[in-house]
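ok trying this again, last paste got cut off
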Amino acid sequence: MLKVAIVGCGKIADDHAAQILRIAGCEIVGVSDREPLMARQLSERFPVRRYFGELTELLTETRPDVVHITTPPESHFGLAKLCLESGCHVYVEKPFTVYEKDARTLIAIANEKGLKITAGHDDQFRHAARRMRTLVHNGYLGDGPLHMESYYGYELGKSGYAAALLGDKQHWVRRLPGQLLQNVISHGIARIAEFLTTESPRVMACGFTSPFLRSMGETEIIDELRVIVCEDQRTTAYFTFSSQIRPSLHQFHIYGSRNGLLLDQDQETLIRLGGKRLKSYAEHFVSPVRLAGQQLGNVFTNLRSFLGNDFHMKSGMKHLIECFYRSIVEGRPVPIPYREILLTARIMDDIFAQLDAQESSAASRSGFCEPARQ
């Protein structure tokens, strides 16, 4: 039996607890939060024996094998370091750390102690995303990815979290180097990082506060971001984060020398984009029919998962947690290679460094947009 603990008892902790309880062979032995009432309430919502106000007490009293860290990002490094030094494997919610150097330190400690650590990039483990990965690894694109486009939409004002962020000038998200962006974009950046082959790609970022937020008197939060990522004479990628474009997309496009793939996270669909054009007018009639057939196939694939009780909003989180636990128990590789975690953190560091630069240097470093902050 794998003993699991959760640190941080906010909303996301409920998702972790629910998915952990779906997995056989593990038990949540304790939860902790600096606000003991939050910990007690989480322990009452789920079958958790004990709750604590301090992490050190939880580690000493319950001796968990794995700790899930679901606290605000600025605390991730210190809490994960303490858990690793106490002999625990660690699952850290996104973003993994605030800075790449901290991510590198945590991974070094884990390796030194023979422990395992992972990041909560669960979107990469949803059903359609796993099918996409299999096709890429089996050579469907040709000689690997040549270009990628990652879209991540975020609708401000639709959730209590967004309302709290906009209404509170002291909100913890505002203390992050990248503020709202840092707390959200790692999912979209990680999709790109997975398929890059070099360790230090060039990053060019352009960010600004939307006219919508400026009309509300908000001048600090950047809610529109465009990024180009490129490897020398190899793969290129675009990343788009937007609170304003509609529909609010969560898509990933990946193209090779032979074919392409289009992943739609919201619809949980995967479309194969054939690289060859049909001759004459057949392209206008046959190709739409083929696409319609693929969409129908996605419907049946999703229906099978639904009937198998494995089609829910956090299915990616469940699969990632299962893979992580299996890597611990069976000695398998971690589900997210450490180089991908570090590369995601490095790209985010580069983005926020550019957004924080002075007006003139931001324009010259990005090379394709006006100053980052307006």
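PB: full thing came through this time. Residues 279 and 286 are 10 Å apart (CA to CA).
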